[in-house]
Design goal:
With 418 residues, the chain is mainly α. It has a single domain, classed as MFS general substrate transporter like domains (Growth Hormone, Chain: A). 75% of the residues lie in helices and 3% in strands. The chain has 15 helices and six strands. A two-stranded antiparallel ribbon has the order 1-2. A two-stranded parallel sheet has the order 3-6. It has a two-stranded antiparallel sheet with strand order 4-5. A hairpin with a 2-residue loop joins strand 1 and strand 2. It is a multi-pass membrane protein. InterPro entries: Dipep/tripep_permease, MFS_dom, MFS_trans_sf, MFS_Transporters, POT_fam, PTR2_symporter_CS.
């Protein structure tokens, strides 16, 4: 791979992928910020069923990439997959503005996401040589793009939805998806070329994963599935608690409930630079083993965030909890998230054979599928338990994930020849 022109010390293609992803995430988080409220307040669907629909939708949105990744690697190529997927998703977001098309719109977004989601981040790794030290933390930079979009989405889509009508919020999400597609089309000249043509892929079909790598990936997948059962509650039951159990008054101003969904991505943007600076100074220690230990530490921090909510709700009793506690929860949760989620995505890309990049990254989204589906089932328990007990359960789930990752880190140590 020849030396590429850079922006901000990184290949220019990273900026293109960063901005494309930012707007795609704007559309996703904009719709996610509204979805549970839209179902319970506009469509008058019960809480348990709404939580299950929410979990099923997010699960399907992350299941389709495993098929989409194979299609991108074997037939379409990554660029065509991104363009087709983004177009279908934009259509789905605009369909959300019409109540009779609700389920069809969710299906369209999930299908488009299947082509888009594995094909875009797998191009990040293609920008770098395998021994480039910037490669391991480029995914943290890419992750900031996810969260800029996630920060703006509840403020724009959420405000439009709450104040002017849910359909305006969904329409704004569709506009964001179109913006991402335009950026990708204009910036294609800065993107890495497709590494292999279909005929070449057939000749390398046997150059896949070794058994040890497969076991490590499966172990990470199981651990992150457990983790996301707790983590995904931020857009589900935690959002319901923000509406019914939190005093959102700031003086005479009532903070819109969707605005709290912006705290997580805001803290990602604030915390990522110092964490990257620290990790960059210790990049010579970034083995698979140490990265998995980093993930375990992150899961433990997220568990402590839910412990905080359990304590707050127990002490508040029948009274509303102050919104400052919810803000502190998002700060602690985000700090832990940065240790586990972008690290896991980077590990999947790092362990992928060159000709299976999209497919391997798609398997990461299959993990998100299983975790989201589990989160939907856990969310149905919200109305059955006292909030303090429920948040304590989520803390235990996150701690279980941390334990599994810590055990896995020993297994992930490099094997020495016999």
């Amino acid at each position: 791979m020849t030396e590429q022109p850079t922006w901000f010390g990184q290949p220019r293609g990273l900026t293109v992928l960063f901005l494309t992803n930012m707007w795609e995430q704007f559309s996703y988080f904009g719709m996610r910020a509204l979805l549970v409220y839209y179902m319970t307040k506009q469509l008058l669907i019960g809480q348990a069923q709404s939580s299950f629909i929410y979990g099923t939708y997010t699960a399907c949105a992350y299941f389709t990439p495993i098929v989409g990744g194979v299609i991108a690697d074997r037939y379409l190529g990554k660029r065509k997959a991104v363009i087709i997927g983004a177009s279908i998703m934009a259509l789905g977001h605009f369909m959300m503005a019409f109540e009779p098309l609700f389920y069809a719109a969710l299906a369209a977004i999930a299908i488009g996401n299947g082509l888009f989601l594995p094909s875009l981040p797998s191009q990040v790794g293609d920008l770098y040589q395998r021994d480039d030290p910037r490669r391991s933390w480029a995914f943290n930079v890419y992750y900031v793009g996810i969260n800029i979009g996630g920060f703006l989405a509840p403020l724009i889509c959420g405000t439009l939805g709450e104040l002017y009508g849910w359909h305006y919020g969904f329409g704004a999400a569709g506009v964001g998806m179109v913006a991402g597609l335009i950026i990708y089309l204009v910036g294609q000249r800065h993107l890495p070329p497709e590494q292999l043509r279909p005929a070449e892929r057939k000749t390398q079909a046997r150059q896949g994963f070794d058994r040890h790598t497969i076991m490590v990936l499966l172990g990470i997948g199981l651990s992150v599935t457990v983790f996301r059962a707790a983590y995904e509650q931020v857009g589900n039951t935690v959002a319901l608690w923000a509406d019914s159990g939190v005093d959102r008054a700031a003086g005479a101003f009532q903070i819109p409930m969707t605005w709290f969904q912006s705290l997580n991505p805001l803290f990602v943007m604030l915390l990522t630079p110092p964490l990257l600076a620290y990790w960059r100074r210790h990049s010579h220690k970034d083995t698979n083993q140490t990265l998995i230990r980093r993930m375990a530490f992150g899961a433990l921090i997220v568990g402590s965030a839910y412990l905080l909510l359990a304590a707050v709700t127990a002490l508040s009793g029948a009274e509303l909890s102050g919104w400052i506690w919810l803000a502190l929860f998002f700060l602690v949760l985000t700090f832990g998230e940065l240790f586990i989620l972008p690290t896991g995505l980077g590990l999947f890309a790092r362990l992928a054979p060159p000709h299976l990049g999209a497919t391997t990254v798609a398997s990461w989204f299959l993990v998100i599928f299983s975790g989201s589906l589990t989160a939907g089932l856990v969310g149905t328990l919200w109305s059955r338990f006292d909030p303090a007990i429920y948040f304590l359960l989520l803390a235990a789930i996150a701690a279980t994930s941390a334990f599994l990752l810590r055990v896995l880190s020993a297994f992930a140590a490099p094997r020495t020849p016999a």
